[in-house]
Sequence to fold (70 residues):
Amino acid sequence: MCKVKPLLHVLGQNNEMRAKDEELQLAIAETDKLALRIQELEQENAELVQEKSAVSSPYVKLAVLVKCVA
Fold:
């Protein structure tokens, strides 16, 4: 019994380490997924800003012309 008790303690620690390792792997996977989503959103934002700039540019020029004429 004296030899078994320390082995049971080590086995419990091993099981705890496996559980923590699985938890860590899930957190890493979630982080990678979120990082990819951030990149996608940043790219989409850049495209929308560029599109907005292209759309609003003619209106800005028109507004400047109207002020000059008036």
Residues 6 and 32 are 39 Å apart (CA to CA). The chain has a mean pLDDT of 83.
